[in-house]
Amino acid sequence: MNIFVVNCGSSSIKYQLFKWPSESPICSGLVERIGLEESIITHKVFVNDQEQVIKRVLELPDHDAGMKEVGMLLTEPGIGVIQNPEEIEVVGHRIVHGGESFVETCKVTPDVKEEIKRLAILAPLHNPGHYVGINVAEHIFSKATHVVVFDTAFHSTMPEKAFRYAIPENFYKDYGVRVYGFHGTSHKYVSEEAIAHLNKPDAKLITIHLGNGCSMAAVDGGKCIDTSMGLGPLDGLIMGTRSGNIDPSVIFYLVNQLGYDIAQVDTLLNKRSGMLGLTGFSDMRDILKAIDAGDKNAKLAYDMYAYRIKKYIGSYAAAMNGLDAIIFTAGVGENDPDLREMVCCDMEFLGITFNAEENKIRAKGLRELNLPDSRVKVLVVPTNEELEIAKQCFELIQN
Length: 399
Ligand SMILES: Nc1ncnc2c1ncn2[C@@H]1O[C@H](COP(=O)(O)OP(=O)(O)O)[C@@H](O)[C@H]1O
Ligand SMILES: CC(=O)OP(=O)(O)O
Ligand SMILES: [Mg+2]
Description:
alpha/beta, Nucleotidyltransferase, domain 5, 2 domains, 8-stranded mixed sheet, 6-stranded mixed sheet, 14 strands, 38% helix, globular, binds adenosine-5'-diphosphate, binds acetylphosphate, binds magnesium ion
């Protein structure tokens, strides 16, 4: 069975094609800068542990054009991995916000699509792209079963004391205002990998997903009990362009004293804050270069980014009454040793003794970065949201 997984972001499309049940990846790719002057497609084809990389710069005004290009790459003579789009039996879509109505992986229906579209008010950087992506993919892969997998699903086990806000109950009961949490597919995948590695099903884990969006989860015995993002993917950690947690008084001040309207506040906190707002760069690689060049703002921002993570580690260890491992994952978590060191240093009181030497070595796959006598393990676990989505699609189709 061919399972095609799609993750449509605001200006990008990530995709991966798997052969199932062998779980082998056939090709993957990234379409970037959709709607900008020069869009870039990086397409990788995997054959016997080798990868062939095809990179193209072209004009892609929207997701429609981007997805059509991907469809053509899959079948292009010479590099194509299938003869025609009808060979794709299942398409799995990553959906950031499923609200209260959709927590479980399910097949796409008109109602599901409408709810995803409506929830764009809560996930403005993500859900609009998902909605367009599903429609375009349904057109191209018209014979396939389309399935949606929600970022929010893994967090649905949180107890009410963790997911409620301290505002009058009717906002929750009537309008669904509560903590949902995101990146659930990643937190689920890496926590399961860690549990298998530790051989400890009841492990108390803290998973730290640091990509463009960043979030943490407290996972006790395989179940999420708390997470750092909230009603939308804006709360919690400092991110590429998002502020993370901020006193709501700041919003009143912006509106009442500085004359901002709510749309401007939204843009400020979602698109112009976080590392971008502090340094001028949203990409951690640019920030590291700026620090090397002596940029004090970049150094401060980096300190703030790490400090926020440390605070959540403390609070989640307290919430679980213990800690067996912390897990770094996603672009920054997997690739930035300096950041990991800043987070893990001076944490001996909590049982973390960090192996700074091992941390500096570049390596692939799951690894341990703690010293042998450390009570708490420090793990890097590469995430694979696409594989997890494909797995869930297969399970749904089987049943
Ligand atoms: N070698 C590296 N060192 C530091 N940061 C890195 C490195 N490689 C990637 N990153 C960072 O990872 C982030 C993107 O992570 P990723 O998980 O791909 O995000 P997303 O899936 O949200 O687009 C970017 O901030 C990027 O700078
Ligand atoms: C939910 C979220 O922030 O996702 P991403 O990291 O892909 O932007
Ligand atoms: Mg990601």
